[in-house]
Amino acid sequence: MPTLPDATCPIAPCFTSAPYLRRLKICAPAGRHADVGTDACLQTHPAKVHKLMNEPGAPTDRPPETLVIGKLALDRWRPDDLEVLFSAVSGTLEHLRPWMSWAADHDRESIKRFLAESNEGWVRGERFEYAIRDLQGHVIGSAGLLDRIGPGRLEIGYWVDGAHTRRGVATQAAAALTKAALALIWVTDVEIHHDEANLASRAVAHRLGFRLIGTYPRKPTAPAETEYEVRWGINMDEFATSPASQLLKDVRAT
Ligand SMILES: CC(C)(COP(=O)(O)OP(=O)(O)OC[C@H]1O[C@@H](n2cnc3c(N)ncnc32)[C@H](O)[C@@H]1OP(=O)(O)O)[C@@H](O)C(=O)NCCC(=O)NCCS
Question: Closest residue (by CA) to atom 12 of ligand 1?
Fold first, then answer.
């Protein structure tokens, strides 16, 4: 394992302490050790570092494997969920096809690949994919956090079964994932990206209080997509007073 530099962090003097760096090394996801050092100090939030120094074990490098929000539970996908996920996707394929490029190649093999890659991504600390389950434990969607938009940032992705849309499922799942993501030591920002024409996805980001970052050209990959992607973001400070945070409080209170 590479040695961590005992460098001076420019954010605050207390960050320079060796205990912080040692504990950050422990918290850093496997394979990230080489990146951890002054850069990691810069990417994290002062409040997290204080918590890290004062409360052993928190914050962590990976989100919980189960998140409960109101009447929903987000459960980490595992390789042995093959049949349940295959059946959930098969049952709502026409609803997914316009927006999800992978729906065009849906079969058991592609689901198996998704579950295997998700599992590896979780172990590496780069991808956290969850089943969205209702009170009875039925899978009604899927949502995840993806480390593919740059250091310190995670992107949320989701789909919900066509028979369960417009009941706030994606909004609640995304709120729970946002909170879990921002609690990670190495995450400062969470983003939602969607096609410009995907109004339902846009509504989710808007309702949660994400800030509009901008609209960017890109190549469409699914039948209903345009040539533009809209990006929304939220950071720790924004989250504290956001509708997403309020939603989580309201759901807990009911
Ligand atoms: C996008 C998606 C995940 C939203 O899931 P959901 O559980 O229905 O989302 P919510 O109920 O939390 O919120 C959806 C909101 O979108 C808005 N909405 C939904 N369909 C809409 C439409 N056709 N036009 C305008 N607004 C729409 C509404 O405001 C709706 O909430 P409301 O009816 O309560 O006002 C779901 O439609 C889906 O799975 N779509 C296909 C896959 C996909 O597009 N994934 C996202 C890729 S970025």
Answer: 168
User: Would you give the DSSP letter of residue 229?
Assistant: E
Mutate to test the pocket of ligand 1, among 165, 199, 226 (most ligand atoms within 8 A of CB): 165
| Interval 136-159 mean pLDDT | 94
Backbone CA torsion sign across 107, 112, 118, 120: negative
The pLDDT tens digits of the residues spanning 193-235 come to 999 999 999 999 999 999 999 999 999 999 999 999 999 999 9
pTM for the whole thing? 0.85
Q: How far apart are CA 38 and CA 42, in angstroms?
A: 6
Ligand 1 pocket test, candidate residues 161, 201, 206, 231, most atoms within 8 A of CB: 201
Q: CA nearest 142: which of 118, 107, 116, 124?
A: 118
Q: Are residues 128 and 19 in the same domain?
A: no
- Give residues (CB < 6 A) around ligand 1: 95-96, 99-100, 158-160, 165-171, 194, 198-201, 203-204
Residues 56 and 157 in one domain: no
Tens of pLDDT, residues 13-46: 333 343 344 344 434 443 333 333 444 444 456 5
Considering 14, 31, 61, which residue would you say is the last residue of a domain? Answer: 61
